[in-house]
Specification:
homodimer, 283 residues, alpha/beta, Arc Repressor Mutant, subunit A, D-Maltodextrin-Binding Protein, domain 2, 3 domains, 7-stranded mixed β-sheet, two-stranded antiparallel ribbon, 10 helices, 11 strands, globular, DNA-binding, LysR family transcriptional regulator (chains A, B), transcription regulation (chains A, B), LysR_HTH_N (chains A, B), activator (chains A, B)
DNA sequence: GATATCTCTAGGCACATCCTATGGACATCC
DNA sequence: GGATGTCCATAGGATGTGCCTAGAGATATC
């Protein structure tokens, strides 16, 4: 057991998916696979149930996660013990409001770990060095590095009658109180349907929307990553396939800070699946 | 930075000596050397001042040690999280009373780490599977695996006039109140000289002896390892070179428990310096 | 002057890690 | 129903890192 394996473990725990975890760790999927296998052998317990659509943490994994998390944090802190906060470049990153906090913070690790960078996180409409946004929000002069894509799902109160259905159609949602998310980047899309009726509430943030759902006020259509970690909320797929592609956007014209350039390079190397011409390391 | 490097670091910190640390980690000295160098480069600070007779921890090392220690402990705890205490063999180890606790406990790590072993530590006169003793205490039917050898030194109150001397002769100690350690394995030796005069105190344990020294009651002659960690006690070499060889002793006749056999094997592989015929791994 | 101790460097070997490629098992889509 | 996409596991090959031996250099000790 070493810290590297613990990092891989927490990534898998967070993503519930070996392939996705591999991407956030900037390694290939088999590396994650063998690391988890080794860890399970060493601990003498099963950490994840593999099923066809990702993996599910066992009770052991839950238990192990808290201690793994602590060890990693302490190791990171130890590494920074003697680093002076000298000569830091400020990197301003715009985050769209509907991002999954845990996943995003994990993604930004390579930046926060650098002692020469002071990271500033702001809204995505402000003046930024780069933005993490949905592809639909991309401006003309921006490059886009895809990070992940995620579907929209319906979040409903666990006791709601519609939880009995495996999948929700637009017809199902016709006469049901809905919770609007005023900040949603897809609001133009949802707007059409929503305009036909009164919305039950207009949420100012994702947290707020989820709380309203949990309280039984209504149903919300939210990105999968947002609903995933929330308790007291049932999740059902919706029939209309709406997806968003989340990625890093940066202005093509302006020069990129060194730290950000490294970061983008890292992202591109791993995320861009080489289809015909492989762009590997050392290029 | 990985846990392995942290282990090496704590070993060096404890032993104040790369070579000795290498032995307690069961690796060669260059491995330790490069690990420390790497760690220093990564942290951006000097951890040890190298001088010709070992190394001295810097203030950074003091600081880093507490956090390194915690990370290692947590990692060890994590490893044992899911191990049941099932089917443990009890290994009874006799420790002579004058052992340096920190060093000895570190030495026994390979045994305490095993989930199939319950370690019992007792006095070295009781019925044991093996004993950690001075070579002078070896019985006829016992094998001896040397661990380290250490000199006896004089421990004196910091304000004592004799602290002005770099080295103490027997003459210096002739008319000085001495503290006897009744349990000392060398008592036969010291006895001769001590018998000529009244001793200022007879200490029941090393801790007690050191406390008496610190209190200014008198001077004690103790193994180097005992005096090293104690504050308020000055240490001076003595002119007569008395050494003790500490090692693991086990009865040649009785069969050895598996865990103990592994342990002895490990010790022998590393401690026994190959002089002409090297007995390396995989043998 | 011989010996012992302690650290560092050099060169070589072996294992660990990582990669790509591929296969099997399901879902999903047209 | 076949094509496609997703996801995990395995195999085989490249690479890198850790570890070892050997020996040099420096300094105490006998």
């Amino acid at each position: 057991m070493d810290i590297r394996e613990l990092r891989y473990f927490t990534a898998v725990y967070r993503e519930r998916n070996l392939t996705a975890a591999a991407r956030t760790c900037f390694v290939s999927q088999p590396s994650i696979s063998t690391a988890i296998t080794n860890l399970e052998a060493e601990l003498g317990t099963t950490l994840f149930i593999r099923h066809k659509k990702g993996v599910a943490p066992t009770a052991s994994a839950e238990q192990f996660h808290t201690v793994a998390r602590r060890i990693i944090d302490e190791a990171d802190a130890a590494r920074k013990l003697f680093r002076k906060p000298s000569a830091r470049t400020t990197v301003t990153l715009g985050l769209m409001r509907t991002l999954d906090a845990t996943r995003t913070i994990a993604l930004l690790k390579p930046l926060t770990a650098r002692s020469d960078v002071a990271l500033r996180l702001v809204g995505c409409d402000e003046r930024t060095d780069a933005r993490i946004i949905s592809k639909s929000m991309l401006r003309d002069d921006e490059h886009f590095v895809p990070l992940w894509s995620e579907r929209y799902v319906a979040a409903l109160p666990p006791s709601h009658p519609l939880t009995l259905k495996d999948k929700l159609s637009t017809a199902d949602l016709a006469d049901v109180p809905m919770i609007d998310r005023c900040h949603c980047e897809q609001s133009a899309f949802f707007g059409r349907a929503a305009r036909r009726r009164q919305s039950a509430a207009i949420a100012q943030s994702e947290d707020w929307a989820m709380a309203l759902v949990a309280a039984g006020v209504g149903i919300a259509i939210v990105p999968e990553g947002v609903a995933k970690g929330v308790s007291d909320v049932a999740i059902r797929p919706i029939e209309v396939k709406i997806k968003r592609e989340v990625g890093l956007a940066y202005r093509a014209s302006a020069p990129l800070a060194d730290a950000l350039k490294d970061f983008v390079g890292k992202l591109q190397r791993v995320r861009a699946k080489p289809r015909n011409n492989s762009s590997r390391r050392h290029d």
